[in-house]
């Protein structure tokens, strides 16, 4: 952990806590939110009033880890995270600050809500951790279909700041209502095997989608033609919601299939495409030699295209698009979100 040893040690021995933040750090003299930078402490972001006292909506992980990272600046956190997991995350600090400030602007306009309570009271009484899933709702056009964004994090976290806020900003600027969705993570899933964790996270997401379908009118959204944007583990969830060989896919659970899924460095390379998947619409981007193996999906591209139809499958293997590149600024993936929106809009008209 090198230079971060002094930051991590208090939390590791159980004395850590997320520091309190004075109110005047969040607001200017006029009572408006101050613009944030990448040099703010993580405690500033975790405790920001935009999240309505939900400490895990900037970066969602177990409470011990949140305490552990809370004394870092966001810039330090990105460098540590990028070095530890060998991702492209460490270079995108300003991108995150811009997207976070956009969130603050939209909150001041009354366009942001924090949503919870997707599981029934009976299910929560049996498993209190099922009260944990949250969504950040950006209110957009009630005519356009909704976009669901599922950040990655290996089912042990949700990297909202990196694969949530920037995506939501671009989608919301295009007029869409957007939901950044956080499923249960880590020990909250009550299983240790990574595949089992993924299956539990998919079930959380199914419950959320069913909740959205029941609350369309109340939220002022349209789920007709909705899309799911997911990176890394979020892309695996998007895949599992859509293709018929997964246990909790839309066809088996009885909810409408997404109009499009966009698994970014997240399409499951173990996917089995069946004839009943014809017509599924997929937009995907992945980097060569992806650090987490997602470039293995490229070997399936032709097989998938043969079943879905060439017009329904937009996939590229990119030479410079490291895992964790988010929107891909200054990589070969730059502009993928604009391309994905255009692809989605082409299929909305069908």
Automatic annotation (TrEMBL):
It comes from the Bacteria. Residues 143-245 form the BD-FAE-like domain. The keyword Hydrolase applies. InterPro entries: BD-FAE-like_dom (IPR049492). Keywords: Hydrolase. GO terms for molecular function: hydrolase activity. This is Alpha/beta hydrolase. It comes from Faecalicatena faecalis. The lineage of its organism: Bacteria, Bacillati, Bacillota, Clostridia, Lachnospirales.
